[in-house]
Write a structure and sequence with these properties.
Blueprint (H helix, E strand, L loop, with lengths): L3 H24 L8 H19 L20 H16 L1 H6 L7 H22 E4 L9 E4 L20 E4 L6 E5 L21
Antiparallel strand pairs: 1-4, 2-3
Helix pairs in contact: 1-2, 1-3, 3-5
């Protein structure tokens, strides 16, 4: 069974981070690197927020499943497993836990490129993403009545009732597939083991 909460939380986080990255890259003059705190807040922040949101208790109303599900990895284990993969492949936790005050923007930008490539590869191997709205950014769009507010967020001057006429600012992301490797029977709270080199 696929832990859905981390996937549902991380898919939009990836979209927001990618959008923030593109906006920053578009707005800055060529060759200028954003400040480290700004970069971390805009690009790495959505992932941290998604993992924190995924850890919140479910609001399922205490419903009991009709038949007992087979033993599966809990969503907490799935979230920690995905965080472990992002650490293993992209060193995401090392980056987030590092005090960046002593580094130049150029050094942080160079490090972020490797982290981006590793995390992107890990994410693409495990989650198949597709846009929520298959249109290009900047195109005109009509949002009909009955739209899913979890899938389409209206911004700007929202008044009246649908249909709404607007411009697509971001197509959104939806997870169409998700596969997570089974973690061996170890403490699921160990996201990445300590490494000791023996001389």
């Amino acid at each position: 069974m696929i832990p859905r909460r981390p996937i549902l939380a991380l898919a939009p986080a990836a979209a927001i981070a990618a959008g923030n990255y593109l906006v920053v890259a578009t707005l800055l003059p060529a060759g200028q690197v954003p400040r480290a705190a700004c970069f971390a807040w805009l690009v790495v922040g959505p992932f941290v927020q998604a993992l924190l949101l995924a850890a919140l208790p479910s609001r399922d109303g205490g419903r009991v499943p009709s038949e007992p599900a087979p033993p599966a990895v809990s969503w907490e284990d799935g979230a920690l497993g995905l965080l472990g993969v992002l650490q293993q492949e992209g060193r995401l936790l090392d980056f987030l836990e590092e005090d960046l005050a002593g580094y130049s923007d150029e050094q942080i930008g160079a490090a972020a490129r490797g982290i981006h490539e590793g995390c992107r590869s890990a994410l693409r191997e495990r989650i198949g993403l597709e846009p929520v709205v298959p249109q290009g950014e900047g195109e005109s769009i009509v949002v009909e009545s009955g739209f899913d507010p979890a899938a389409i967020r209206l911004t700007g001057n929202v008044s009246g009732t649908p249909p709404y006429h607007g411009v697509l600012r971001h197509p959104g992301w939806r997870a169409k597939t998700a596969t997570f490797p089974r973690r061996p029977a170890v403490d699921p709270r160990v996201i990445a083991p300590a490494e000791v080199e023996i001389a």
